[in-house]
Specification:
Elements (H helix, E strand, L loop, with lengths): L18 H22 L4 H5 L1 H21 L10 H28 L11
Helix pairs in contact: 1-3, 1-4, 3-4
Length: 120
């Protein structure tokens, strides 16, 4: 059975510098930021404390779901791509680094101030 998973040697079929890779980075970056910020506003301490991990996990799950959908032919593509998965991971890592730096800097400056908390 031939697999459609590519990304190892087909430079012409799935180039690293294609606009598609930028879209993967931007989308996973955005999903990480969105879910991390939502988790940081939760009333539950566990969610607030691990908000960066939660945002990263949601983003990686979305990227994996997209690649699985590509592999099963739900979207018009050549199949799952290891390069798309790498682009997803790059977006998550960039978001996690920015969030970590922002969170550590903010915690030093706002150690005694109250933050808004969502009732979720």
């Amino acid at each position: 059975m031939e697999t459609l998973f590519h990304g190892g040697g087909g430079e012409d079929e799935d180039p690293w510098l294609a606009p598609d890779k930028l879209y993967h980075v931007i989308l996973c970056f955005s999903i990480s930021l969105l879910f991390s910020n939502l988790a940081s506003l939760s009333r539950y301490f566990f969610l607030r404390r691990h908000s960066i991990w939660i945002g990263s996990a949601f983003s990686l799950a979305a990227g994996a779901a997209k690649e699985a959908a590509d592999q099963f032919g739900i979207f018009p593509s050549a199949g799952a791509s290891a390069r798309d998965a790498v682009a997803d991971a790059i977006g998550v890592v960039i978001a996690a680094l920015i969030l970590f730096l922002w969170k550590s800097r903010r915690s030093r400056s706002e150690s005694s101030q109250n933050r808004p908390i969502l009732p979720i």
